[in-house]
Specification:
Blueprint: E1 4-6, H1 10-20, H2 26-44, E2 50-56, E3 61-67, E4 71-77, H3 84-90, E5 95-96, E6 98-103, E7 110-116, E8 125-129, E9 132-133, H4 137-148, E10 153-161, H5 163-172, E11 177-183, E12 186-187, E13 193-194, H6 200-205
Parallel strand pairs: 1-11, 4-5, 4-6, 4-8, 8-10, 9-10, 10-11
Antiparallel strand pairs: 2-3, 6-7, 12-13
Helix pairs in contact: 1-2, 2-3
Bound molecules: uracil (URA).
Length: 208
């Protein structure tokens, strides 16, 4: 069963409150989402693999540690794009793949309309990012696409989650751990997270 980690850190609480506020500007919303994503990534990458390297300091030759595992960030289009820069600030060598999913209006099935993924998914720590884990349907499909392309270690990273979405991921992909900045009350009739923060894509990109 997937573990669910809901972050409990004063900086994350504070920044989440900022982005929940409907008066927050597009600029501030985008910057703050990235700041939260960076703070979360710092903790989520705690189990990245390391290897020893020889480093000659100005004083002596010494053995030190360096990353032995790639990080691949995969935003689900389009709102996931809003979390990428914050993680790349921390991990500048991270590669970035993209997955686009739409909902078939007749069958309600999640369908892929775009996928461009880097090589090395099988060895990397893959961070699948999407600010809102609502019904979980897109994330289930995106995880399947990543697995079909060889990903072994997938972590789902969202700002705000609904219990309904968490349950859907746990059922479909029990091996994928879920990281949230907040777990909210649930979904309303329009499948918006309550209290949530509205439409994350619109708020990130100033569309309506
Ligand atoms: N997607 C969003 O952007 N917001 C929600 O509340 C649910 C899904």
């Amino acid at each position: 069963m997937s573990n669910v980690l809901v972050f409990d850190h004063p900086l994350i609480h504070h920044k989440l409150t900022l982005i929940r506020n409907k008066e927050t500007t597009t600029k501030s919303f985008y910057e703050t989402v990235n700041e939260i994503a960076g703070l979360m990534a710092y903790e989520i990458t705690r189990d990245l693999k390391l290897k020893n390297v020889e480093v000659e300091t100005p004083i002596m030759l010494s053995t030190q540690k360096t990353l032995a595992q790639d990080v691949i960030i995969v935003p689900i289009l389009r709102a996931g794009l809003g979390m990428v820069d914050g993680i790349r600030t921390l991990i500048p060598n991270a590669k970035v793949g993209h997955i686009g999913i739409y909902r078939d209006e007749e069958t309600f099935e999640a369908k892929q309309y775009f996928a461009k993924l880097p090589e090395g998914l099988d060895q990397a720590m893959v961070l699948l990012v999407d600010p809102m884990l609502a019904t979980g349907v897109s994330a289930v499909k995106a995880i399947q696409i990543l697995k079909d392309n060889g990903a072994q270690s997938i972590k789902l990273v969202c700002m705000v989650g609904a219990p309904e979405g968490v349950a859907v991921i746990q059922e479909a992909h029990p091996d994928v751990n879920i990281y949230l900045a907040a777990l909210d009350e649930g979904l309303n009739d329009a499948n918006y997270i309550v209290p949530g923060l509205g439409d994350a894509g619109d708020r990130l990109f100033g569309t309506k």
